[in-house]
Amino acid sequence: MSQNAHRIYVFTLVGIVVVITIYLFYQGVSYYSTSLEERFYHADHAMLKPSGVMGHGLGIIGTLLILIGVFGYIARKRYGFLARFGRLKYWLEFHIFLCTLGPIMILFHTAFKFGGIVSVSFWSMVAVVASGVIGRFIYIQIPRTIEGRELSLAEVKGMKINIESILKNSYTLDESSYTAILESTQLPARTGEGSLMSGVINKYFEDQRTVSRLKRSLRENRLPEPDIRKVSKLIRNELSLNNRIERLQSMQNLFKYWHVAHLPFALIMLVFLVIHVAVVLTFGFKWIF
Ligand code: HEM
Ligand code: HEM
Fold first, then answer.
1. pLDDT of 31-59, one tens digit each?
2. CA distances (Å), 157 to each of 164, 239, 282, in order?
3. Which terminal residue of the chain has fewer beta carbons within 10 Å of its beta carbon, N or C?
4. In this model, does residue 141 exceed pLDDT 80?
5. Is the pLDDT of residue 73 over 70?
6. 189 C-alpha to ligand 2 centroid (Å)
7. Is 144 helix (H, G, I), strand (E, B) or coil?
8. Which are the contacts of 193, defined by CB distance < 8 A and separation ≥ 6?
């Protein structure tokens, strides 16, 4: 898929979600904003109540969308032959699309009443969607191959350049600046312990101070200004790569914990959904069939 085709793909998916949400809201705003006691007398009650033609239909279609979104994505990850139907990245985007639209439809299915044991399923669904948003954020922080495989620490480390030989071969540096640059751009011994949010900001200022200190030292030792600029750029690139390497392991660990937190909510949702469907079928609700 070319970059433009991908943009159109994402735009279409987002557009569908927005249009359907606005339509459902517009269609039912008068009914949903009526108090629970008075809804019975509302003209749209027969259609929009959770067992009404539209309300019930939204529950069934929304649930089907979620099931297709979850099992489709899991199947794509497990079975190699599905790879010919598109990159994992596109399937994840489709998973997010179906698993956002499905819960929105279910929200309208409940007609904004969250009673009974099925509310456990509803709130678990909300938790899965919320954690999905966080998971997506972590997911995009981890460098991957085109096929969607996470790059290992060694592979990202392999992107580091041999700054030692570049400095030796291309510039005439004094011994103390040379040693200081090598020391500052060395990977910290404990990669993987890199802190996240607050650490990122502290690290940015620390790196700025390191670059200024090294530039001062190069100036004192009369390196020509164009060379100072080139060496500073090299130092900045190396520091930025070091940070990515440090954060990579934190992000990968965080993503592992995220998986552990995400799955149980999806399972709880599924279990209570099965009970809910069994109960409504026992009570004889058959939708249009
Ligand atoms: C995750 C999926 C679902 C959730 C979270 C959900 C949630 C709910 C909620 C909160 C209610 C309102 C309970 C109340 O009146 O206080 C409800 C009612 C209902 N749901 Fe669902 N539902 C889901 C899927 C389904 C499916 C797949 C079906 C159809 C097989 C279905 C059929 C019904 C029916 C018929 C009612 C009305 C029951 C009555 O009036 O007593 N729901 N649902
Ligand atoms: C009811 C809604 C949802 C359900 C039931 C659900 C369920 C799942 C399940 C079971 C997995 C695990 C797949 C695996 O381990 O291979 C998964 C993965 C994932 N989901 Fe969802 N999800 C939902 C909504 C969302 C949303 C709204 C987002 C993002 C905004 C999202 C983002 C992700 C991400 C980033 C992954 C990890 C992909 C990977 O590691 O390959 N999910 N989801």
1. 999 999 999 999 999 999 999 999 999 99
2. 16, 12, 59
3. C
4. no
5. yes
6. 34
7. strand
8. 246, 249, 250
Pocket of ligand 1, candidates 63, 276, 279: which has the most ligand atoms within 8 Å of its Cβ, to mutate? 276
Tell me the per-residue pLDDT of 219-261, one tens digit each, with 9 for 90 and over: 888 888 999 999 999 999 888 778 778 778 778 888 888 988 8
* CB of 77 sitting under 6 A from ligand 2: yes
Helix, strand, coil % in the chain, rounded to nearest 5: 75, 0, 20
The residue among 259, 20, 15, 251 whose CA lies nearest residue 143 is 251
Ligand number nearest to the C-alpha of 53 = 1
**Bridge partners, residue 225, by sequence:** none
Q: Is the pLDDT confidence value at 195 over 60?
A: no
State which amino acid sits at residue 220. Answer: E
* Mean local confidence (pLDDT), 64-83: 92
In contact, 51 and 283? CB cutoff 8 Å: no
Q: Report the distance separating Cα 188 and Cα 289, nearest Å.
A: 65
Q: Where are the beta strands (DSSP E) in the chain?
A: none
Question: Measuring CA to CA, which residue among 164, 161, 165, 49 is closest to residue 110?
Answer: 49
pLDDT at 198 > cutoff 70: no
Other C-beta atoms closer than 10 Å to the C-beta of 106 total 23
Q: b or e along 246-279 (b: 16 or more beta carbons within 10 Å of the residue's beta carbon)?
A: bbbbbbbebeeebeeebeebbebbbebbeebbee
Q: Which ligand is nearest to the CA of 122?
A: 1
* 3-class secondary-structure state, position 255: helix
Any atom of ligand 1 within 6 Å of the Cβ of 128: no
Where b means 16+ CB within 10 Å and e means fewer, 13-23 reads: beeebeeebee
